[in-house]
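Thread: "does anyone have the structure for this chain?"

Original post by V.I.:
We have the sequence but no experimental structure in hand. Need at least a predicted one for the grant figures.
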Amino acid sequence: MGVFARTRSSTIALYVVAGLAALIWLIPFLGVFMASIRPLSEVLRGWWRFEQFNPTLRNYAGAWNHPAAPLGQGMYNSLRVAVPATILPLIVASTAAYGFARFRFRFRDLLFMAIVALMTLPQQMIAVPIYRIMRGLGAVDSYVGLVLVHAAWGLPWIMYFMRNYFTTVPVEVEEAAKVDGASDLRVFLQIVVPMSLPAVASAAVLQFMWVWSDFFLALILVYSPDKLLATQRVPLLRGVYHVDWGVLSAGSVIVMMIPIAVFAIMQRYYIRGMVGWTSK
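Reply from O.Q.:
Generated one for you, tokens below.
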């Protein structure tokens, strides 16, 4: 009875701590959300005060159709970058990760460690070389250049992630298929990939969210007003002579909606993929 009571108490304490942590994370978002749906006069003395509460979608309409930086166009531009910058590294990195997980060749481990070490490079350290390379290729102020940079940036961590997951896939299934005459490529495409869909979904969610939320790489590679991404347009919503906090907050919420929706839709597969190779 005493053990049960202690276990129950520790469980309750764990839930209380988790709830407090979630509340701390939610408070800033609630402030931004309230500022986005209320007139500026109601939030000047604090968004938590509800003596007057007149919700409106006017700020969202102002951000979506902003005269200087319409967020609707920015969302479309961001999708044009985020979708291919997610699919391309997933295909390349997953194929390479399977090779590292299943095939033995000279300097395999050393090469894999070198690739993993690339994950430690901060973007700011190689910003100038990236810009010069893209300018030499004629890919500056182009979505193609930005997609290639994001794809290259995502390759090391996706390769590391997928390689660890592939090590949990039973080798016996692949050997049985090879006995029946299946090639390595067919085994990978028809057996390994379908069995690894949770990991692919997890990597896709993370890569998409990181590309969508990127501001730094887009800032140095894209500068034409009609090509600016959603994250680049949000700071432009504040106005020239005064800051319209309602429109700025609404723009921030709009930009957050896409990654939140993607995570909510893929949550089940995301969790399965994240814990899959840790519970081998």
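V.I.: this helps a lot. Residues 151 and 265 are 23 Å apart (CA to CA).
O.Q.: and The mean pLDDT is 85.
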